[in-house]
Write a structure and sequence with these properties.
mainly alpha
Length: 179
């Protein structure tokens, strides 16, 4: 146990000294993305689309739930009964209806999965292209300025007691992204 703590301390010290020997800089990713043309609009559109898809899915689930409740209205089922026990108590006509409702539920699950895949593709097309452009500019900036490590200060802020603000390259990268 003491060996592993000592080993961890050594690794942390080695990483810290290695990081200090390298040229480092900081970037405020949230500020950069906010300043990137079209980013906020694309994210807002994606949020709206996600909410619309979730609403449609919830409405379809509610309709299906109402159909099941309507079918079971004349039966007295307990919450602990399994699907097989429920089917055993149903009339032949209601068994057919119940099977159709189960198939409808499976189709609804497939539709939900398809909508999620559609959302992911649209997100990739709208937001992903913007992020790719920003990442390309960031990488080029770091290569041109021989920056070996670029920290996201908005992610690290709470873990850092201090950082040299002169090493914040956010504004310089914003200028490049806006070109």
């Amino acid at each position: 146990m003491k060996f592993s703590k000592l080993y961890l301390l050594f690794i942390c010290f080695f990483s810290f000294t290695t990081a200090n020997a390298q040229k480092t800089a900081f970037i405020n990713e949230a500020k950069l993305l906010k300043a990137t043309s079209g980013y906020e609009l694309a994210v807002n559109q994606m949020d709206t689309l996600k909410l619309q898809m979730q609403t449609e899915l919830q409405e379809a689930q509610n309709v299906l739930s109402n159909k099941v409740n309507s079918l079971f209205k004349s039966y007295n089922f307990s919450n602990s009964e399994t699907s097989e026990q429920i089917q055993a108590k149903l009339s032949e006509t209601d068994k057919i209806k119940f099977n159709l409702l189960q198939e409808e539920n499976q189709l609804l699950e497939k539709q939900a999965k398809a909508k999620e895949e559609e959302y992911q593709q649209i997100y990739k097309d709208k937001v992903g292209t913007i992020l790719e452009k920003v990442n390309k500019v960031v990488k080029e900036y770091c290569k041109n300025n021989k920056i070996e490590i670029l920290y996201k200060i908005d992610v690290l802020e709470q873990a850092l007691a201090y950082y040299d603000e002169s090493k914040d390259v956010t504004e310089a990268i914003i200028v490049l992204v806006k070109k």
